[in-house]
Amino acid sequence: MSLSYSQYHEDYRPQLHYTPPKGWNNDPNGLLYHKGTYHLFYQFYPNDTKWGPMHWGHATSPDLFHWQTLPIALYPQLKGQEDIWSGSAIADTHNVTGFAPGGSPNTTLIAIFTGHSAPDGVQSQWMAYSLDNGLNWGYYAKNPIIPDPPKVRDFRDPKIFNQYHEDYRPQLHYPPPKGWNNDPNGLLYHKGTYHLFYQFYPNDTKPGPMHWGHATSPDLFHWQTLPIALYPQLKGQEDIWSGSAIADTHNVTGFAPGGSPNTTLIAIFTGHSAPDGVQSQWMAYSLDNGLNWGYYAKNPIIPDPPKVRDFRDPKIFKYGDYYALVLAVGDHVNIYNSLNMKEWQLKQEYGFKVGSHEGVWECVDLFPINATIDGKTVEKWVLTVNTAGRTQYFIGTFDGQKFTNDNPDNLILWVDYGPESYAGVTYNMEDSGRRVFIAWMCNFGYINEVPTSVWRGGMTLPRDLSLINTAAPDSKLRLASIPAPEILKLNQNSTKISGGVLKANTSLSIVPKVASKLVDIELELDMSGANQSADRFGVEFKGAKDWLRVYYTGAGNKFVIDRSGAGRHEFSKNFMLTPDAPRLTTGPVVSMRLVLDVSSVELYADSGLTVMTGSFYSTDNLTANISLFYESTDNTKQLKCNDININSLKSIWN
């Protein structure tokens, strides 16, 4: 716009501050920085220097000081609108609104503002969009997007923001929008919806009085955060600690009123009181699919026994015509039975001097899972307990009252060998036969120091569990886990790289065709021609300055996540730079599946027998260069590589 010199040098005209050439203006609106340009929209009436029907004026600047006034962006021309009042703008970089036509090179700009109508004074929230960087705007056909609630006088000035793209914010894993979270709780699949409750303190990024946060998903990946489910508001309770949830399909608790179409959801959790530290088991119930909860009037349902310090984390499940519950009791587990979920009888104490006791036992689970033995399908039961920063498991049998371990008492088995997988439990799945596992993707050794911003904590990928044969000399069953197959819904492009022979001390670029910071890589390597007792091979992710390596080494027969070059780690001396895990099967063929998020990597080796989860804190684009590498002290050695599959993934927040 061409403006005369005199127009901007009238008496009292600011020379350092932006004002429109003429007319009335008030509130700044839609402040947006996009592709090198600052956009300033503002409340504007062009026909007088006094208040009138509000428009959105528009100016842009490359540097926040030198402004160019553009044509009016939004007019009060919609039916029933007297004003375009204040609001905000955002760039729809992933076209989640769908306004951008296919193949459009431009990002849609979205304005969300208050539409004010007269004479009734209704204030509702409307949407407009621009496909040409804010010069021309269209209005959403189904406005308003947030109607004016009844009897509310002031309902205006919306601010939209993208909450899920801060530095280090996972794009494949669930953390809450803000606050502290730890253990997954109450994992329940009910009527097509996955419920994820979790330990949550909303007022800080460090632990405080624990609540149960709540999120739901139709597919285990796209999560909607819901209002807090359980608050520590009961007399004598300082915390709502971990527990589980189940659907009371037969109303054995009697909480559902007669004729109610909804199934009651039951939560059983540990109520922790202060200052005496008592831990007892409490019950809550919901009649509206988990949105609102009431507390059982006769809590606790399992009182804290005398002189027991650790008595917590109940997992309830259906067994035949009754219910069973497993509970962590310091150095062992208790197993209980009940017909109505309110009155419980102790049936077994198990685990004294069995497995690992490096730390207190907590966050327990007990579930059936089928195995193939001598060509026949056999039901086995898996008992998991969390201790010393990892999830330990035992395989055996269960008769509804007593668990029996199939393996020697001194055998120690882990679900995930990585440093950031703890408090793992599985979903109650309504007899689907499927077993889905989620853990807390953090480590208590340094969680309070990690450099995230408004949140701390998060969950691992959801994983399908199975029992498979190790093919080792003893041919023992072991628990394996792989990413839940719903991850395939996140694929935006698949790249296949032909296999071949990789010579010692060389590398092969395996960058996907479609760039993404989120990748899922599957490869299979035959080390028959390698020095199997010393050589190392794996995948390197490398950005402009940072790098991350995940590899197998014959020296020690183990897998390693080397995150020593993957950004920040100065925040804690306890942050393990090169965690490792044993290979649990034999044979020359090693399979590796790697799922890389913006701040974590998960390794699933040998069909999920060895699993590792590791976090890192880099803002570099580590998928800029991805390579398969092979290192050996003998240049004559070689590695055979089958076809490599790389999936570029979409963010779950799109």
UniProtKB/TrEMBL annotation:
The record's keywords, sorted A to Z, are: Glycosidase, Hydrolase
Q: Name one GO biological process term.
A: sucrose catabolic process
InterPro entries, per this entry?
ConA-like_dom_sf, Glyco_hydro_32, Glyco_hydro_32_C, Glyco_hydro_32_N, Glyco_hydro_beta-prop_sf
Query: Where's the Glycosyl hydrolase family 32 N-terminal domain?
Result: 17-168, 173-469
The UniProt GO MF terms for this protein read:
sucrose alpha-glucosidase activity
Its Gene Ontology cellular component terms are: cytoplasm
Superkingdom field: Eukaryota
Q: Where is the Glycosyl hydrolase family 32 C-terminal domain?
A: 492-639
What family, per the record? Belongs to the glycosyl hydrolase 32 family.
What's the protein here called?
Answer: Uncharacterized protein
Supply the source organism's classification. Answer: Eukaryota, Metazoa, Ecdysozoa, Arthropoda, Chelicerata
